[in-house]
Design brief:
Elements lengths: L5 E4 L5 E2 L4 E8 L2 E6 L3 E2 L12 E3 L2 E6 L2 E9 L2 E4 L6 E14 L2 E10 L7 E8 L1 E6 L2 E4 L1 H9 L1
Antiparallel strand pairs: 1-13, 2-5, 3-4, 3-10, 4-7, 5-6, 6-14, 7-13, 8-9, 8-12, 10-11, 11-12
Length: 152
């Protein structure tokens, strides 16, 4: 298992996961893990020393005491539930939101498959007690930092 330099607790709100590639998502007991190709770490994240968001390398998010409230694969106008093992590979996150709720967290996300999957999209709502965000380095300034400068 990869060792990460930075591990923080309950800091998902300090990430932007739009367009991040998820190479694998899997459920192990009551821990739901997202293996990510990179994270966009916002300037507000406690492990980001920069005044702008930066892209990390490989990262991981682990949801503790995770309970999948709703999980669906969507193909056209049909949907199918995600199985209890929640073993999913290779999708791009389009929307990811976290909300504090009932002493824990409620997360929802929507993603798109780019490969030859039996589904076009994945959509989930998950409750958890806490989370861990992991990454090792921060590289380039996040793409949206330059985009916002150009808009202004």
């Amino acid at each position: 298992m990869t060792q990460f330099k930075y591990v923080s607790r309950n800091t998902i709100e300090h990430l932007s996961l739009h367009d991040c590639g998820c190479s694998a998502m899997h459920l192990d007991g009551d821990e739901l893990t997202f293996e990510l190709e990179w994270l966009e770490v916002l300037a507000t994240h406690p492990d980001n020393p920069f005044s702008q968001a930066h892209q990390s390398g490989e990262g991981r998010i682990v949801l503790h005491c995770a309970h999948i409230e709703r999980g669906e694969f969507v193909k056209g106008d049909k949907s199918a539930p995600i199985g209890e093992t929640a073993q999913v590979k290779d999708f791009e996150i389009l929307d990811f939101d976290e909300e504090r709720k009932d002493g824990g967290f409620e997360l929802s996300f929507f993603g798109v498959f780019s490969g030859a999957e039996d589904a076009d999209f994945i959509e989930m709502k998950i409750r958890c007690s806490s989370s861990a965000v992991m990454f090792s380095e921060l590289g380039e300034v996040s793409w949206f930092e330059d985009f916002h400068k150009q808009e202004g």
